[in-house]
Amino acid sequence: MNNSTDVKTDRRFSLILLFALTLFTSASLMFVIQPLFGKILLPLLGGSPAVWNTCMVFYQTILFLGYFYAHVVSTRFSQHKQILLHIAVILVSFLALPLGLPDNVVPPTEGNPAFWLFWILLLAIGLPFFVVSTTGPLIQKWFASVGHHTSDDPYFLYVASNIGSLLALLSYPFLLEPNIGLASQKTLWSVGYGVLCVLIMACAFVLWKSQQNTLAFAVDTTEKQALSVTTRLHWLVLAFVPSSLLLGLTNFISTDIASVPLLWIIPLTLYLLSFVIVFSKWNDKIHPLMVQLQPIVLLPFIAYSFINPAVLPYWLDLGLHLLAFFLAIMVCHGELVKNRPSTQHLTTFYLIMSFAGMLGGMFNSFIAPFIFNAVYEYPLMIVAALLLRPGVKSAFTDGKQALLQAVFPLLLIVVGTVVFFSIEDWSAYFDSLGVALILLVGLTYAFRNQPITLALLSGALIAFTMALHGLMSNTLYQERTFFGVLAVRETTIMDEQGHPEKVRELFHGTTKHGAQRLTANNSRTPLTYYSVPGPMGQLFKAYDGVSQNWQVGVVGLGAGALTCYAKEGQTWTQYEIDPLVVSIASNPQYFTYISQCGKNTTMRIGDARLSLNKEPDAKFDLLVMDAFSSDSVPTHLLTQEALTMYFKKLKPNGLLAFHITNRHLEIKRVLADHAKNLHFDGLLQEFKPKQEMPLVVDTDWVVMAKDSAILEPLRVSDLGSWQKLPLSFDLKPWTDDFTNIVSIWR
Hints:
Blueprint: H1 2-41, H2 49-76, H3 79-93, H4 114-143, H5 157-179, H6 182-209, H7 213-221, H8 229-256, H9 261-278, H10 283-305, H11 314-338, H12 346-371, H13 377-387, H14 392-397, H15 399-422, H16 430-446, H17 451-473, E1 475-481, E2 484-494, E3 500-508, E4 511-517, H18 535-542, E5 551-555, E6 571-576, H19 579-585, H20 593-597, E7 601-605, H21 608-613, E8 620-625, H22 640-649, E9 650-659, H23 667-678, E10 681-687, E11 699-705, H24 712-715, E12 723-724
Parallel strand pairs: 5-6, 5-8, 6-7, 8-9
Antiparallel strand pairs: 1-2, 2-3, 3-4, 9-11, 10-11, 10-12
Helix pairs in contact: 1-2, 1-4, 1-5, 1-6, 1-9, 2-4, 2-8, 2-12, 3-4, 3-6, 4-6, 4-12, 5-9, 8-9, 8-11, 8-12, 8-13, 9-11, 10-11, 10-16, 10-17, 13-17, 15-17, 16-17
Protein name: Spermidine synthase
InterPro entries: MFS_trans_sf, SAM-dependent_MTases_sf
Transmembrane segments: 12-38, 50-70, 82-101, 113-134, 155-175, 187-208, 233-253, 259-279, 291-312, 318-337, 349-372, 378-396, 403-423, 429-447, 454-472
């Protein structure tokens, strides 16, 4: 008797292990391919954070299609037909292996490339990713039909799936990326996909042999209780808001810190962790705590982070965003799981979840950039998350209750708007503003148990802080493209004689990408990272005697300040990936560097490596690399292959100048390693002004050449302190196949 019981126990455990392992493998493959293919695609589009967000929309769309397929197959076909159909789909998907981009892929240089990127992803990984995306709901539905004693509630298997997702995401930056090149990663993924297909077929075999096929099919086709439209809509919004928040936070991180998959993974990891927790047995205890903590963290976060992010250290600002995001999605996903249905509606539940996730991604990537000129969808979804707290469903069901909760905040918003626009000079009211913010935060928290009031007051708080930031920054122009948010702002500085002077500044995200003094005497003077006392001013002065007929290439336009170093006999070519940057820099209404100094300048729009590769060899005397995605140099411009190509385009005595100013990454180590391996000579200057000068800032530059003699004018110059590049012995060379951002983190 005991032996028989043990055998049954072992069989039951083996059954759970097989299905859990299949879901674990599927989720692992799904969330390894996301940073993997994001890294493959980054070089084509200049490292823009929108590349990752568009990839996320693609993954969410295919996930929805996979869930839709699983729903239709599991509710319309018998188990035998399901198995035969799914095996056929798996066999067709092998046509897309091994992984890789289609041949001769060239991104468009005009318009928004998001739809082009979507199409390339579909061709490259659409079929295998579709099969992987079907696995979660289909395998759980099959498990519900095999007669296991836990088959009536297979949602616990979703935990195994999300653990696989988490481990895969965390293993990528800390295990796969630092140790394995892209080519090997693609091969390993293809092998893993083959293992997954074997596991799926093993699950299919178990289902085929199950004695409950006919019964299970009858259960699937005869639903005992219909789902209401209200319930479906509630599921939809509870899944939509976290999906939109995920991409909104990702956009913030990749714009203001670094445009690399390592950091993009953090919000996605938290997103998946929330699913692991809410689908576990601890959710009943954790969910009330998350509901209590959400307004405690969120309200101070709104007051500080949205009025002026630069006030806080970047790590603290990032931590606040991540914590507020995690609490918001925990509340939404916790409510989602509380309202999950029985197994007869399992695939419908997952289908609506995936559809909402796709809609959230599409809203952020395809709709918001066209209707907003900044990332307003992010704070909008923060307010929406507060609106979805417990009790909102009953409040909206009872119209009178909803109205009562909305009346007070709406009146406050109207009064506040009138007061706000009636005051012309807010600078005299800064102390009062601080008190008003504190009072508004406290008032908002007092209504934490009334979700409609809480959400509307929080929205008013965000609008108030963002409006104040707009007033203080004096924004003249702001526009959003696929590559980020660009803003032209005007401020006042004190000149050398202590007189006020107007200055125009160009911002990408929160990072300044150029500035110009507006007085006639100073409007041709390069500033900020390109100042005359700084490394670039020193370079042009040191080679003044031989540069009359130079061919100069500059990657990264900014406000166009460098063009004011141009001489009459020189020819300059500017490379810029974002057409809007060219439009702003060329418009005398905003900046006049190009109109005054850039008469012999030609513009090239597109990714720097793709554009430079089309140029004749040995064309340039000087090549300046100044490409930044907000505060980060795109990694594909820092590889050995990239450096080799740059020198191929330089004349034998040509110079390569590399701008490496960065708050978070020691880029000098990468360039020093390349110089050692490729036998180039290089000098580094980490410039700090000797005295305070208007808009002359700290900046770091590396200048490289094939022969040390070419750099002699800089080395012997008394203009600045140029040093040899530091030796680096513990850094694995960065190539197109391998980069490791962790190794150069400050």
